[in-house]
Amino acid sequence: MLICGIHDGHNAAACLVRDGQLVSAVQEERITRIKNWTGFPALSIEAQLNAIGAGWRDVDAYVFAGHEHYYLPGTPGDRASQIVAYKEKTSLGQYPRRWARHTPLRSLTHAHRWSRRTGPVLAHRVAPGAVSKIEHHRCHAMTAYYGARSRPDVLVMTLDGAGDGLCATVAVPDESGVLRRIVAVEEQHSIGILWALLTSLMGMVPNEHEYKMMGMAPYAALNAARDTADIFHSGFKMEKGSWRRANGLPEAMYAYNYWRDRLEFKRFDAICGGLQLFTEEFVCNWIRYWLKRSGLKSVRLSGGVFMNVKMNKAIMELSELREMFVFPSCGDETNCIGAAWAHLEDHGQSRSIRPVGPLYLGLPPSCADYEHAASTANAAQCTVCRPDDISEEVASLLSRGEIVARFADREEFGARALGNRSILADPSRAHVVKSINRAIKSRDFWMPFACSIMEEVADAFVHNPKGLSAPYMIMTFDARDANKIIAGCHPEDLSVRPQIVTREWNTEYYRIMSAFRDKTGVGALLNTSFNLHGEPIVSRPAEAVDVLLRSGLRHLCLGPYLIAK
Q1: Do 267 and 413 fall into the same domain?
Q2: pTM of the predicted model, to two decimals?
């Protein structure tokens, strides 16, 4: 069975699953070159079908993530209007919206929207019966549950801004291994939307720059963060493993003015630190309740709030917890995968689902793509060569303090660059952070970079007492030997967000790291995504050369070519 999973909302994406195996997954932004592109991912679907020699009618099922989700096909999200929308909503707006939920108008609206959503698929003469949809938080739960090896004794929890009227769920497998939901929290009580509101309040872009708030949090004074966290705690009431907003707090989408008034005159770092502290405490209390209630020791987590890697660290440190798995890049882009897996479960084929492995799920460039991009670099007066051992050459450059971008093989799916679309540097050189920001990334001065670490030396760099797997940069740990990887640590709290690299998952990247270790004694590399600030990660060889030419980057490993500017 060939299934196409579709997420047609914020950061749209599509995937192909054949007989339970995840074949490919591509975010639409990588093709349109518009970051966080929103709408039907037509180009992603077309590219993936072409890669396997299939047409639209060769797909057995098209499965959309989300019942109620709707954006006009082909319309990118407007960041400015998104921010203004948060600021202009008033608490009075929650009442007609709440009333409309219980009228026939809701069903009519959703039927019209569903027709608009499916139109781009049906236009290819696909049978209407081949198109279906899966509820939003069930998609998240499917990724968490089936993303790691199946087991009956796990607690599956989802947490995000909102989707199909909910912001959080709790589920456990039944006797047959099928997930059964036991708790759901309505979106009006969302702490994910709280993050979007506060991101907007801080003058940044909601649904994109929340990570900047997390990055600023460690700089806050502890007492200031504590006082601010208590303000956020006062807005919510936890009750029997669920929660609701406190009296006087408007529904989440209408609470911008409420929070602005209560945070007036608070320092920016205190707001960031307080929001992070509140979130860690609140979510840990929620998870701790269900671990004790269920008697389970293992959790599977997904949903955009779990992109907060510092919160994941706090969860990991719970004494009640033995094992955890956070689905990599667990924002809505991965719901296309969850939708496809849910379809298999609904058709009695859940046993065919393979756990997620390496996230190199994009489409490999052709030799012609590489040759054309190399010729473009050559025409721009770059030096282009084809070394006998390119891994050794790259390692030599890195060991001399050079910054090298690497573009090779299939691209990573999701928010994290994992070596194939990465900018690399020696993590022991603290000054390289400023060099990368000045030449290429232009990141905010307080933001940290991440580290790739060879599996066999991970214990020397990362304090991981529970031995959790960490190949996806979705977990944060305390650094053991921060001086050797200082450029890949958070400069304030010396935490590290690692990609633990194995030879089996990425042989060529591992070879570069091994050669670098032979030259320097450090089995790690600073690794940040290969893109200019505000642009998607590069996807094709021509885009890699374009970034080389438009930035202060000097060295590019492009497939078999080594290019110097």
Answers
A1: no
A2: 0.95
